[in-house]
Amino acid sequence: MKKILVPTDFSEHAGYALKVAAQIAKKNNGEIILLHMLELPHQASDAVGSGHDLPEIMLFKNAAIKKLDDLMDDDCLDGIKVSEIIQFELAFNGIMNISQKNQVDLIVMGSHGASGFKEMFIGSNAEKAVRFSEIPVLVVKKDEGDFNINKFIFASDFTEEITNPFKKVVDFSNKLGAELHLVMINTPSNFKPTHIAQEIMDGFISKFSIEKFSTHIYNDVNVESGILNFANHVNADLIGMSTHGRKGLSHFFNGSISEDLVNHAVRPVVTFKI
Asked: pTM above the 0.90 mark?
């Protein structure tokens, strides 16, 4: 976690994310890239290419530069190497492009969640990042104060397809000095006897070197409820999941547990792409 990207729209929730990113950076001798995307009206976007109305474009940019400069002076960033980027691009596209171009290790984003039709049809940039980012995404919902992760739960079915993302999970947990609570959620539609579930978990985990961990099998009506209820049960500091980059109708009908968690969990959620 040497390079951490923090997209900001200068909102309160983006500020929460920055504070968390700063604490992670300090613990890992990392650096932060502050990114602000300028999503201009269609006419102004055309002007960027044509050169028309340039003063209007510069007005947007200069205002963003001023806000970024003020943000760079935040006390939470003392002692951290910080760079700033302003990009004329749609927010989600810019976040993905900048993260790949700068070989970012972690994206930290703020989100206020969503509900109802807004959640179904509009979504947020945080949800899109969770769904598509090849880089781990940490979503922060509130002011976390001192971001000390002692209990990090990671929910999975522990099949072979999560082997590669799980390497990142272990590395993430070890660097945070957290105890990793590995949990398999048993549901009525996909039920496994306890001894079978435990055998699956034990066989999978034996391939990795984890500093501190425990295994759990938790029964609930569905996976999302199981994760949220288990997180409450152990008083977790952080929830982790691997995610598929579902698109189109597959995503609409099947949904994404990770995106639902980003919307509904009060705790921070970190996702790792399969």
From this structure: no
The DSSP code for 187 is: B
pLDDT at 120 over 50: no
pLDDT tens string 242-251: 887 655 444 4
| Burial of 249 (C-beta count, 10 Å sphere; 0-12/13-18/19+) | exposed
pLDDT of residue 7: 93
Q: Quick one: how far is CA 67 from the chain centroid?
A: 24
Which class for 160: exposed (0-12), middle (13-18), buried (19 or more C-beta within 10 A)?
exposed
Tokens representing residue 263 in the block: 């919307």
Per the CB < 8 A criterion, the answer to whether 218 and 182 are in contact is no
Q: Tell me phi and psi for residue 84, to 5 degrees.
A: -130, 145
Render pLDDT for 6-22 as a digit per residue (tens, 0 to 9).
999 999 999 999 999 99
In the chain, the amino acid numbered 265 is A
Using CA atoms, how far apart are residues 92 and 127, in angstroms rounded to an integer? Answer: 10
Whole-angstrom distance, CA of residue 267 vs CA of residue 269: 6
Judge contact between 265 and 239, C-beta under 8 A. Answer: yes
Q: Which residue has the higher pLDDT, 76 or 131?
A: 76
Query: % helix / strand / coil in the chain, to the nearest 5?
Result: 45, 20, 30
